[in-house]
Every structure is written in structure tokens, then in C-alpha cells.
Amino acid sequence: MPQVLTVHSYRGGTGKSSVAANLSVLLAKEGCRVAVLDADIHAPSLDTIFGINPGPGACSLVDYLVGECEIEDAVFPLEPPGLFAVVARTSVASINALTTSGYDVGLLSEGYLRLIGAFGLDLLILDTRTGLCPETVTAMASCDRLIVVSRADRLALVGASETMALTNRLGCSERALVVNMAPDGQIGEDFRRRLEDLHGCPIEAILPYEPLLAAHDGEGLFVTAHPNHPLVTGFRRIISAVIK
After folding, report:
1. Which sign, positive or negative, has the C-alpha torsion 127, 170, 180, 224?
2. How many domains does the chain have?
3. Which of 17, 64, 200, 232 places its Cα 20 to 30 Å from the Cα of 96?
4. Domain enclosing residue 70, as ranges
5. For the whole model, what pTM was predicted?
């Protein structure tokens, strides 16, 4: 049965989008039909991570929301086969149109269902905007599973209780915590317990800080360039624990 997975962080700088992108590539390599949608219309990043360069007339999520295209027209086929992406926007002008005219938030959840049906998806991954905003709330309300990506520092505790209060109200019971950019791939036991208590879910994976990951943004996905790296083992652990 098709599923929707939302990947979220309360604050920026956690590597959330890289986690979402690399998970999508691994799943596609395993034969899943996967689409990853950049729901951060104000500060998109998936187009850069995947090296997508929309040409003239290309469509995006924002174009769909303002009625300039259908959501199916905003899909970019990627490699490996069975992997697709929806970019948040293709120009600054499009976001100006959105902020000027506004949009119906209900179009988001409708678009998610249409993507699953039109492309025969096994999984739709929603890469949210940080913090809490209408796009993020809709992504959380629409998902079957939620991954919260956190860093291994005290700032990770900021917003945790607010985020979990929202997910509880939305009924997001299937959720997991991923700690990213951990020094040496480890965190202290006391910090682990505090994170898990605040988020109300276990830590499924602790991903080490890896400078090579930043070097590959926009130049090929890390899981493709370094398939045997320990970080990729961590991505696979997330898939086993959360998605399958």
C-alpha cells in the first residue's frame, strides 16, 4: 500500500533535505517507485541536491498552488528509474505570485494523493520547511510516518515539545527520531534519553558528521558516490526501522 513519509526539522542546519534525498535514492535502487517533494517553498534545496536545472516553462509546486499547472506537470524523472522529484519553485517571481494571491492549503493534500495515483508510487517523501507553518502542518497531517531530524547539540531541544504537541494533535503516532551530524557518530546517554523523552519516540539512527556529504550536494548523491560508507549504512538502518 502506498505510504507518505514526512521528513521534518524544527530548525535549519540539520541536514534534513540531504537525509530525505539520500533515502529516496536508496529506495529507488531497491526497486521502489519513490517521489520526493520539496515542500519548503521559501527556501528550497532539493533542486540543488539533485542537480535539477528547470528549463523555460518548467513547472513546480508553487505553480501548481497558484493554478498555473497540474501537479503531475511539476514532476522531474530522475535516476535511478522509478525516482521522481517535485521542486518547490523555479523562480523568485513564482513565490511573489504565491505571496500576493495566496493559495488553498487543501491543494497540498490533494496533490499528494494525485502524485501517488498518477505515478504508481510506493512512497511519497515530503521534505518540509523548518519550524511550523501551513505547508509543514499539512505534510504532517498527510503522512503515514514522520521522521524528525535533529542535531546532536542543545539547540536540538528547542521546539521539540512544540513539535511533538502538534504531531499528537494531528495523530502522527508512527514517528521516529534521527540524530544527524553527530561527532564520531555518537551522543551521550543522558542526552539521548532527554531527546527521546522530549520527542516521545526512540532514536532510530545516529548519523556521523561527514564533510564529504556537503561536498557532494549538487554533484551526485552521497549514497551513489560512496555506497559502502558508514553513513550509508545509517541511511539503510533508517529504511529498515522506519519505512519497511
Report:
1. negative
2. 1
3. 17
4. 3-243
5. 0.93
